[in-house]
Each structure stands twice: as C-alpha cells, then as structure tokens.
C-alpha cells in the first residue's frame, strides 16, 4: 500500500491518539511478531544507528517510520542494555522536523566525548522541487538520557563532485582526532566514501575521498563503518547496484567489507583485499558496529532490505534488527561473526539428542517450536557411523506444507538455505535459495529461530545466513535428515521464552 507524500512526511505530533492506537493494534495482531528480536511497535524499522557503549550501557537506536511500512519521516528510536539481551525501551531518541532534518533524521553513529554521547546523523531535507539536500547534524545525549539537537548542522553542504546522496556518518577516534566516513555518490553516479576529521566533534574539516581499489562498484555506498582490530582495518559498507555473480550478491543491495592495512591518516589510501559479503542470507543490510568494554567489537544489522515488499507490510509493521554478533578478524583478513555469548541468558527449557543420524528424516522429542536456539555438531568422520552421508541438514518450522531447509552437500562443502517452502513468499524475483561454500567441512550449526526469522551461524562464525521467513504458527517441527549415509549428531535446543 503506497502512501502519498503528505502521509509519509507527517510528524507524530500531528497524529491523533486514536490513529496511533489503531496502528498499534493492527501490528500487535500480526501473527509474525517476533518474540525476542528488536522490532518496532508499529511502522517500519530500518538501519541500526548510534550504536555505542556509554555510561555503563550499550545504546542502540534504529531508523523508525512510525506511520506505515513505506520509507517516510524517519525518527531514531532508542534502546539501551547492559547485556545486549535485555533491552530497555527509551522511546524516541532523535526527532526530525527542523529545517536541517525536515524530511527525516537519517542514519548516523554515536561516540562518547567529554562525558556525553554525541550522535552524528544525516538530516534529510527536500525543497519545494522535491530536490534532496542532506545535512550532517549533531544531537548530544547527557547522562540523564536527555538528547538535544544542535541548532545548526555540523557539515552544511555536499562537497563538489558528489550528488545529493551523501549520508550516514560513522565516527571514530584516533589519537586527538575524530574521523568520520560518509556514504556518497560521485557526480558520475558511482559509489564512494568521503572522510572528514574534527578536534571537537563540531568543526569538521574535509579530508577527501577514501581511495580504494573499487572505483566502480555500484552507484551508491550506504552506511560505511571503519574500525581497526588486531593491527588491521576493516571497512564495512553497503554498495547498491552491484550485479549478481554466481552465488554472490544475490540480494537487491549488498552489505560487505574489505579488510586492509590501517589507514595512514590523514592519508586516505586503503590497501585492501577483496570485497566479501558479511551475510549469505536473504535479509541483511546496513550493519553498524560498536566497541564494548574489553575492546569487544559487536555488530548489529537490519534484518531487511530496502525496496522490497514484506508480508507484514499489510499488518502495518516491517522488519527487525539482527541479534548482536561479536567480530573476530582473522590474520588473513576474514571476519568471523559469532552470536554474543550473553544470548545464553535467554535459554529456557532444554532438549538434547546425541547419537547417529540415520539415512532418511528423523525427529526427536522436544525438538520443535517457533522461538529457540539450536546448537548442532556434526561428525562425518566418526568411526561410529557406516558410510558417511553425502548430504545432511535440518528442516526448520516444518508443517504439513512448509519447511525452511538448511542442506549441506559434503562433496563441495556447500551450505544451501532454501526458503521456497518456508511459508508466505517474498522477493522471489531474487531467488529462493542462498548458498555458500565453506572452507572446512561443516562441523557446527548454531541456529536462532524466532517467529518470523532464522539466523544460522556455520562453523563458529565462518558464515552467517540471516533471513526472514513467514510460516504458519502451526509449522513448528524440526526434522534432521541425511542422504546416502549417516552422520554423528550432537544437538542441543533451548526454548527462548
Ligand atoms: C540505508 C538508508 C541510509 C539512510 C537511511 C534512511 O538503509 O537508506 O542510507 O540514511 O536508510 O532511513
């Protein structure tokens, strides 16, 4: 249901309590509300923003359009947590509507400075000709959680050479300087990243464009993030307009990273390796990282994609955030992503199976549900089994006609996620399977199922598949299967109440 411009750019204060109540009720009655993921009470959620550890809490905001599932007037919605599992609802964080963010408080990041949390974001504006004018703006949060916006943008114009698509500042500190990367589109309609630096978070000096070996890689780069770990650097960004190549880049827009030698700041030359996708599932975009106590680097993404119709749209809400993942950077520049350990705090009732998974399909007592963690270890080399299965895997959310299948083909070490029978279809033009070839044989699958999503971590962080699925509530089964042989299986399952 497309909204008109007037409907899309209304501010919440101009909406009656009755209308809000109706919207809330509509989304509450959706059968696909998640049980333990961060989701909007109504309307549309997109990018995680302002993710930072400040004053004893992880603060996390998200892009929120309250009044529908179009991309309309964006607010920042605020949550905080001490453990990345239990989130305190802090309400709206940044309200749009001033001259410099009249058409939305777009994405940005947070960093502590002088005891306060500085939130740098893009003010989206449109003039009477509907021409876009982005401003980079600042909001400052104090220890009481009060957030006030500065009355002027801190970067008021787009530098020469770039179009109106100039947004999503991500800030970090290096020595005495704050640096920020901003997603940009060059005048020749290719994607790029522009950098600034500042002493005080208020006066920003243009440094220039980040130099990479990817001068022509899509038409726009959104949501950049730069960080260093273990003596290397990582640049995350979301290129739009990259064509699919075999099993790569199959979603409408991509999200990935390059790893590199640390930037020789203020020089902007990045010596980097190949672009790698962060996630191999159907629904992942615009991730952002924060650094936690003890130097942990945590990533949260948007479990959704722009310009895609989702089955919950007709229920007045859309999307959720991914579970937080802890990053490790391997010496060869590959990022490993593991679900944060704190998630174990959610674990409820447990079921377990340890034994031989025979050829065919098998179900075990206690293995079913709609919201749970499933941790499976597979051993094809065990001398307890006969011929090793050529293929094995798991079907999730199994019903009479439904299943979401994770299939592993041992010969090519290929994992395939198939949502062709998962339930209500979506984005089928982009295919109904995703696959990835592992470096090592599959030994472990750690799976997080919620009412309308799955997150699958293979081999301790080597590959992640994040996807929405829209099955019927009755589709609760878990089925293990093996073809042309057997595999040793150790499976543990915890309900997530
Ligand atoms: C990415 C994005 C950002 C922008 C925001 C607006 O999903 O398009 O580039 O700041 O969403 O909500």
TrEMBL record:
This is Sucrose-6-phosphate hydrolase. It catalyses: Hydrolysis of terminal non-reducing beta-D-fructofuranoside residues in beta-D-fructofuranosides. It comes from Paenibacillus hunanensis. Belongs to the glycosyl hydrolase 32 family. Pfam families: Glyco_hydro_32C, Glyco_hydro_32N. Residues 37-339 form the Glycosyl hydrolase family 32 N-terminal domain. It comes from the Bacteria. PROSITE patterns: GLYCOSYL_HYDROL_F32. SUPFAM superfamilies: Arabinanase/levansucrase/invertase (SSF75005), Concanavalin A-like lectins/glucanases (SSF49899). Coiled coil: none annotated. GO terms for molecular function: beta-fructofuranosidase activity. It is an enzyme of class 3 (hydrolase). Its main location: cytoplasm. Pathway: Glycan biosynthesis; sucrose metabolism. Keywords: Carbohydrate metabolism, Cytoplasm, Glycosidase, Hydrolase. Its EC number is 3.2.1.26. Enables the bacterium to metabolize sucrose as a sole carbon source.
């Amino acid at each position: 249901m497309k909204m008109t411009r007037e409907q899309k750019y209304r501010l919440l204060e101009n909406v009656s309590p009755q209308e809000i109540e109706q919207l809330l009720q509509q989304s509450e009655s959706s059968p696909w509300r998640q049980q333990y993921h961060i989701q909007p009470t109504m309307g549309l959620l997109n990018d995680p923003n302002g993710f930072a550890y400040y004053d004893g809490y992880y603060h996390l905001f998200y892009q929120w359009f309250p009044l529908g599932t179009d991309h309309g007037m964006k607010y920042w919605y605020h949550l905080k947590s001490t453990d990345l599992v239990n989130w305190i609802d802090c309400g709206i964080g940044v309200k749009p509507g001033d001259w410099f963010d009249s058409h939305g408080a777009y994405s940005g990041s947070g960093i502590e400075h002088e005891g306060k949390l500085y939130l740098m974001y893009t003010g989206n504006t449109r003039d009477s000709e509907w021409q876009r004018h982005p401003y980079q703006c600042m909001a400052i949060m104090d220890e009481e959680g009060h957030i006030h916006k500065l009355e002027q943008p801190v970067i008021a114009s787009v530098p020469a050479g770039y179009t109106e698509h100039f947004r999503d500042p991500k800030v970090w500190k290096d020595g005495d300087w704050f640096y920020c990367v901003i997603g940009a589109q060059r005048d020749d309609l290719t994607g790029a990243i522009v950098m600034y630096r500042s002493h005080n978070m208020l006066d920003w000096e243009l440094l220039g464009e980040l130099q990479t070996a990817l001068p022509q890689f899509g038409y726009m780069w959104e949501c950049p993030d730069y960080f260093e770990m273990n003596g290397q650097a990582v640049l995350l960004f979301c290129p739009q307009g990259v064509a699919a190549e075999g099993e790569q880049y199959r979603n409408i827009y991509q999200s990935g990273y390059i790893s590199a030698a640390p930037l020789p700041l203020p020089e902007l030359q990045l010596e980097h390796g190949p672009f790698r996708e962060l996630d191999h599932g159907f629904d992942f975009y615009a991730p952002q990282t924060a650094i936690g106590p003890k130097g942990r680097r945590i990533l949260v993404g948007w479990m959704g994609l722009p310009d895609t119709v989702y089955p919950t749209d007709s229920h007045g809400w859309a999307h959720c955030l991914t579970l937080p993942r802890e990053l490790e950077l391997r010496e060869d520049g590959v990022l490993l992503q593991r679900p944060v350990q704190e998630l174990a705090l959610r674990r409820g009732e447990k079921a377990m199976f340890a034994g031989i998974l025979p050829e065919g399909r098998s179900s075990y007592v206690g293995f079913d549900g709609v919201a749970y963690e499933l941790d499976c270890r597979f051993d094809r080399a065990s001398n307890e089994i006969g011929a090793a299965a050529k293929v094995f895997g798991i079907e999730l959310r199994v019903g009479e006609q439904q299943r979401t299948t994770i299939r592993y083909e041992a010969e090519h070490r290929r994992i395939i996620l198939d949502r062709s029978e998962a339930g209500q279809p979506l984005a089928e033009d982009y295919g109904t399977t995703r696959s990835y070839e592992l470096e090592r044989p599959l030994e472990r699958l750690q799976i997080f199922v919620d009412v309308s999503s799955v997150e699958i971590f293979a081999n301790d962080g080597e590959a992640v598949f994040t996807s929405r699925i829209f099955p019927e509530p009755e589709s609760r089964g878990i089925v293990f299967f093996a073809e042309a042989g057997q595999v040793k299986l150790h499976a543990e399952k915890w309900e997530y109440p």
